[in-house]
């Protein structure tokens, strides 16, 4: 409920939510090394693409020593350990494709992975918080935060396209930092009825969302759809709502029953969920439930930020009460930019999943004549898991879900412009 009355609460701030001024949700200066005791993990995790390629990863992990997680102390050590263990786990499970997954993660991996996950409040599977937010370093520490000067700490099969996929996503996160920083300005402005400040902050948020869309366009430059679809994507998949692992996965030494976890997806990014709560985008039951579930794959402080934004006075009601043309426009513009981002994202998903999936189906038909590059492309696409053709790595039925979320965003537009 909106109020123009001065508020006695302390101002809303991002301080307690592990959000940095410069990098937003991105982990600042991720560590690149663990204490020497953990070298056996690092030695394998750094070689996952190569060991998967030679079909030796499971062998190496099976004979890895069982290490205690107790010597990991600081947050950034735990994040690096979680990332290394996650990359190993994804490689271990998917090394032989969708038809030869494992039923059990061995205890020397599963037990410390579980412990580290518990301490971080993250699930024991590769998340966006691992693969994107904590998986980067600058080649030249003094250089810019851009594609040329960034590299991953750990990769998965798929070569340059895998690197491109994670780093472009990282740049989308970075482009959102001005938007994130303006969220408290909007909330505090609404609390004290400061129309001009709220309008200005919303204008900055619109610009930042536009910048996110511009960065998302880089996917087409740095990622090859057939490599993403045919080679890399399976390594992001999870063991929940996945027909090729209907029971989930046993984490040996943790619990006898299998556990189910969704795979890594930028649906686990906290950004759009923060914007939705701020702008009052309300999700339909099924897609809303999926998005809420994704919050359990975010660092707890980021999940809490989304919840706390949702508890603030309604921005939309405030705008409607103020009857300020500039404020009205600013909110409309913001929602329009978010809608455009979601529309563009649907195009990306179509290009990187729907089109290659249709091609894969076509390739299963009796042979048609193809030239050399079509044969190579076809070979890659044909390797893609059939179980994931209609599903996202997070397990959703992709297009229905994404279009519903997009349409709910459109419904947030104030009446005049939605016509
Ligand atoms: C090649 C690039 C990408 C592909 C193929 C892709 C694919 C998908 C898919 C299939 C989903 C459905 C949920 C699931 O089951 O995983 C999804 C959701 C989502 N993705 Fe992406 N994605 C890409 C890049 C990105 C990037 C860079 C971002 C920005 C951080 C992003 C943000 C989201 C969000 C926020 C959702 C949840 C739906 C929403 O709020 O609109 N995606 N994505």
Automatic annotation (TrEMBL):
Binding of heme b: at which residues? 345
Q: Which UniProt keywords apply?
A: Dioxygenase, Heme, Immunity, Iron, Metal-binding, Oxidoreductase, Tryptophan catabolism
Give the taxonomic lineage as stored in the record: Eukaryota, Metazoa, Chordata, Craniata, Vertebrata
Q: A GO BP term, please?
A: 'de novo' NAD+ biosynthetic process from L-tryptophan
State the GO CC annotations: cytoplasm
Q: What protein name applies here?
A: Indoleamine 2,3-dioxygenase 1
Q: Which family does it belong to?
A: Belongs to the indoleamine 2,3-dioxygenase family.
Keyword Transferase (UniProt): no
The question of whether Iron is a record keyword is answered with: yes
Q: Gene encoding this chain?
A: ido1
Pfam families (UniProt xref): IDO
Q: Which organism is it from?
A: Cyclopterus lumpus (Lumpsucker)
UniProt cross-references to PROSITE patterns, sorted A to Z: IDO_1
Under Gene Ontology molecular function, one entry of this record is: indoleamine 2,3-dioxygenase activity
């Amino acid at each position: 409920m909106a109020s123009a009355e001065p508020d006695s609460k302390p101002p809303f701030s991002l301080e307690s939510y592990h959000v940095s001024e410069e990098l937003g949700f991105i982990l600042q200066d991720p560590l690149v090394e663990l204490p020497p005791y953990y070298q056996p993990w690092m030695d394998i995790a750094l070689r996952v693409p190569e060991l998967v390629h030679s079909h030796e990863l499971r062998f190496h992990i099976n004979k890895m020593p069982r290490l205690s997680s107790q010597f990991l102390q600081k947050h950034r050590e735990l994040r690096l350990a979680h990332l290394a263990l996650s990359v190993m786990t994804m490689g271990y499970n998917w090394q032989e494709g969708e038809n030869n997954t494992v039923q059990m993660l061995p205890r020397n991996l599963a037990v410390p992975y579980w412990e580290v996950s518990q301490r971080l409040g993250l699930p024991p599977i590769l998340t966006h918080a691992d693969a994107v937010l904590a998986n980067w370093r600058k080649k030249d520490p003094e250089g810019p935060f851009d594609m040329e000067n960034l590299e991953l700490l750990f990769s998965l099969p798929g070569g340059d396209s895998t690197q491109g996929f994670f780093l472009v996503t990282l740049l989308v996160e970075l482009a959102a930092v001005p938007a994130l920083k303006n969220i408290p300005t909007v909330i505090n402005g609404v609390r004290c009825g400061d129309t001009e400040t709220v309008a200005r902050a919303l204008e900055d948020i619109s610009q930042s969302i536009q910048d996110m869309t511009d960065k998302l366009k880089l996917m087409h430059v740095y990622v090859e759809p057939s490599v993403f679809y045919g080679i890399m994507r399976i390594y992001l998949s999870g063991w929940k709502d996945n027909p090729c692992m209907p029971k989930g996965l046993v984490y040996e030494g943790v619990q006898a029953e299998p556990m189910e976890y969704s795979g890594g997806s930028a649906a686990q990014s906290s950004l759009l969920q923060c914007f939705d709560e701020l702008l009052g985008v309300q999700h339909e039951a099924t897609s809303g439930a999926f998005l809420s579930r994704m919050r359990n794959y975010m660092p707890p402080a980021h999940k809490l930020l989304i919840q706390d934004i949702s508890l603030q006075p309604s921005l939309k009601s405030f705008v409607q009460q103020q009857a300020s043309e500039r404020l009205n426009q600013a909110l409309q513009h913001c929602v329009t930019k978010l809608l455009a981002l979601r529309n563009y994202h649907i195009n990306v998903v179509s290009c990187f999943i729907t089109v290659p999936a249709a091609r894969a189906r076509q390739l299963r038909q009796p042979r048609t004549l193809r030239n050399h590059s079509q044969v190579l492309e076809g070979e890659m696409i044909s390797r893609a898991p059939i179980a994931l053709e209609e599903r996202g790595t997070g397990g959703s039925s992709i297009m229905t879900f994404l279009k519903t979320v997009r349409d709910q965003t459109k419904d947030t537009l104030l009446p005049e412009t939605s016509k």
